[in-house]
Amino acid sequence: MAAYDFSPFYRSTIGFDRVFNRLDALVGQEAKSYPPYNIEKTGENAYRISIAVAGFADGDIAIESKENNLVVKGAKPAETEDKGREFLHRGIAERAFELRFQLADYVEVAGANLENGLLHIELKREIPESKKARQIPIGGTAKTLEDKTVN
Fold it and tell me: Which of 2, 58, 99, 148 has minimal CB crowding within 10 Å?
């Protein structure tokens, strides 16, 4: 895999060091293929992660959100194999998994539901009022023409 040098960006940007650190970390990661998932943008500030979790029940999956990380873990409880079952083909893996997602600032998990073998995790970005753009009034004393002529 090619290595990328982000040092030119560090010279011309201020406050974006976390972004480039994340990019550095992502370059070295391998793409996870199990279980398959989609990431959708469902609105201006809304997103959905859909993960195919066939064979898993609600109690087999744990979702944890901490700071800017979202971790989804799945594991089937250890069961004694039914002696009467004999698989001719076993295509549903049902193996343990762990997926990690980096969330942008102010993105929060709004909810999750398991439906038809798909785990849907709803995400919403809510920017605090203090971080939104606002107009700054220009203060000062207004000088009239009369003020300038009187010495």
Answer: 2
**Euclidean distance between the first and final Cα of the chain, in Å?**
74
CA distance 9 to 24: 12
Q: What is the pLDDT of residue 104?
A: 87
**Residues 38 and 69 both lie in one domain:** yes
Type and span of the H or E element at 147:
helix 145-149
φ, ψ for residue 80, nearest 5 deg:
-80, 130
CB contact at 8 A, 103 and 92: no
Which pLDDT band, with edges at 50, 70 and 90, does 48 fall under?
very high
Which domain covers residue 2, as residue numbers? 1-30
Helix (H, G, I), strand (E, B) or coil at 39: strand
Indicate whether 54 and 112 sit together in one domain. Answer: yes
Residues 55, 15 share a domain: no
pLDDT for 117 beyond 60 = yes
